[in-house]
């Protein structure tokens, strides 16, 4: 059964142009401020979420990894704790990748972590190439979620795992109310003041609200071929890590 992904219809800007083009433009626009905003707006909790996701991948002993929608490479850097031989980070935003490349050079990681222009829905690697794949806050932005996840499944080795970190919606009082207020009012205001792109941080809560989280997303993962899918809700349900094995 095909599950509708309403987030595919949520675009950063106008109705003209594809979602993919608009997402790339949006991240190009905010790339120089993205790291600052990301950590400030999440109160640095996003770092703890990434650490947990990487810890879940450790039993699979991955050596060659792919970080999809890598942005400026924070997740790729966190993957270094697994002692990989190679990490490929791909993203559709050239602006984000340029920031990420400078970061890798400064951290002396550029020989292990490569930052490459690439599309999740048309991944430029052979079948069963990777020992592990990660996506942090990226699947919401896929123009075609099923196609992107199918491609990820294709390039992952059998018996290995995908870790997806994505925003979700708290269900209990008062976290649900606080979350809605923060995402709907505080985050867009700060984003507008700092990033100079007001749509970037109104698109975020809109896409989170529309995204099929929890059991719906687990069903989508299983429909494209993943098995043993487990969800780990973090920080009162603000974010969820999905671990899916091929």
User: Mind describing the biggest β-sheet?
Assistant: 7 strands, mixed
| Helix and strand sequence | HHEHEHEEHEHHHEE
Cα-atom radius of gyration: 17 Å
**What share of residues is helical?**
40-55%
Oligomer: single chain
CATH class of one domain: Alpha Beta
Reading side by side through the largest sheet, how are the strands ordered? Answer: 3-2-1-4-5-7-6
User: What's the total helix number?
Assistant: 8
Q: Any guess at the CATH architecture of one domain?
A: 3-Layer(aba) Sandwich
| Sequence stretches where pLDDT stays below 50 over 5 or more residues | none
Q: What structural class is derived from the secondary structure elements?
A: alpha/beta
Record field, number of beta strands: 7
The CATH H-level superfamily of one domain is Vaccinia Virus protein VP39
CATH names the topology of one domain as Rossmann fold
Gap between N and C termini, in Å?
20 Å
Mean pLDDT: 92
**What sort of overall outline do the alpha carbons produce when their principal axes are compared?**
globular
């Amino acid at each position: 059964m095909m599950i509708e992904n309403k987030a595919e219809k949520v675009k950063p800007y106008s109705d003209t142009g594809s979602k993919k083009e608009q997402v790339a433009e949006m991240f190009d626009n905010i790339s120089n401020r993205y790291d600052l905003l990301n950590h400030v707006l999440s109160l640095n909790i996003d770092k703890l979420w990434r650490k947990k996701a990487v810890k879940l991948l450790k039993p699979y002993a991955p050596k060659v990894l792919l970080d999809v929608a890598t942005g400026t490479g924070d997740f790729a850097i966190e993957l270094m704790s697994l002692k990989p031989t190679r990490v490929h980070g791909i993203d559709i935003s050239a602006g984000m990748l340029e920031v990420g490349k400078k970061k890798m050079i400064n951290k002396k990681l550029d020989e292990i972590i490569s930052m490459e222009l690439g599309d999740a829905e048309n991944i430029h690697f052979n079948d069963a190439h990777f020992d592990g794949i990660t996506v942090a806050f990226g699947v919401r932005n896929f123009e075609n979620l099923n196609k992107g996840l199918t491609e990820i499944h294709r390039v992952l080795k059998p018996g290995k795992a995908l870790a997806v970190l994505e925003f979700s919606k708290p269900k209990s009082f008062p976290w649900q109310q606080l979350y809605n207020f923060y995402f709907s009012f505080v985050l867009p205001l700060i984003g507008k003041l700092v990033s100079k792109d007001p749509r970037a941080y109104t698109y975020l809560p809109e896409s989170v609200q529309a995204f099929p989280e929890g059991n719906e997303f687990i069903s989508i993962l299983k429909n494209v071929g993943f098995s043993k899918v487990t969800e780990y809700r973090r920080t009162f349900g603000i974010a969820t890590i999905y671990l899916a094995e091929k």
